[in-house]
Specification:
Keywords: ATP-binding, Kinase, Nucleotide-binding, Transferase
Radius of gyration: 19 Å
CATH topology of the largest domain: UDP-N-acetylmuramoyl-L-alanine:D-glutamate ligase
Family: Belongs to the carbohydrate kinase PfkB family.
InterPro entries: Carboh/pur_kinase_PfkB_CS, PfkB_dom, Ribokinase-like, Tagatose/fructose_Pkinase
Number of strands: 14
Strand order of the largest sheet: 5-4-1-8-9-10-11-12-13-14
Shape: globular
CATH architecture of the largest domain: 3-Layer(aba) Sandwich
Strand content: 15-25%
Protein name: 6-phosphofructokinase 2
GO molecular function, one term: 6-phosphofructokinase activity
Length: about 325
Amino acid sequence: MKNIITLTVNPAIDKSTTVAGLKPNSKLRCTSPVFEAGGGGINVSHVLKELGGSSLCMYMAGGATGNHLKDILIDLDISQKVIPIKGWTRENLAVTDTVQNHQYRFGMPGPEVSEGECQEVLQELELLLEEGDFLVASGSLSPGMPIDFYAKVGLIAQKKKAKYVLDTSGEALVKGATAGVYMLKPNLGELSTLCGVQTMSFRDLEASAKVFMDHTPCEILVVSLGAQGALMVTKDEVAYITAPIVYQQSTIGAGDSMVAGMIFRLAMGGSHMEMAQFGVACGTAATMSAGTQLCKMDDIEPLYQWIQKNTDKSSRIRF
């Protein structure tokens, strides 16, 4: 299996709890909170561990919450490289109302990051990356970070001949994609941003994805379509992957689980189709878990088998 490095520049402690009904201006009695390591790249490393793979989890962290995050990853037996920062690592909160079966997610912005702290991340990547490695940069930027930070990461990956996978949003995604990537996993809204349009319908999806690939230095584009699966586009192939219908408990971490599944399959030598199918299986499995829990291997395998059997061969077009 090829080496995988995940990068998270704005990690979090994800705290989740439940409450029997939400009412304003009232003291609400919650269940004991569950604390988990969160942030795009950290979630990817966590899922890779669940799949039987390994990775180096690289992230920026500071303060008591940063130490808590480090301890959680030690307990999970995930290899880590911490870039210390002055600010405290953020905490996010997810509350599930058990009466209405609704989940409320509160995301915090994260600590201010200095130019020197950003440079330290880039310098560490220069030292760590080797030819053929997978580098997965996932999640939002922290306040104070330059909007082209992921583009700078991409230039280092190109220099080192590593396979750069980017999963973020907004202008950071646009800048990073323009600089060049191996793979992108946008959702429909993020693809709209990449294509410079406000909205995009399913009718326009395939044509827009092809145009984007023709004008962007990207080898693989996998557009996440939520419960409807995904669209995979390369320079010579387009394929729709259908997702099975499952009982969804939470969508937290579904995108990160999908990315982890795809990277795991690629690192094991799988084809692009196997990669996309396994990724959809992992993303779907994550929605079956409650709160901030990620996908579980016992759920993934039967979903993957279903997807393999039900991928319509007519939806696979080679050029």
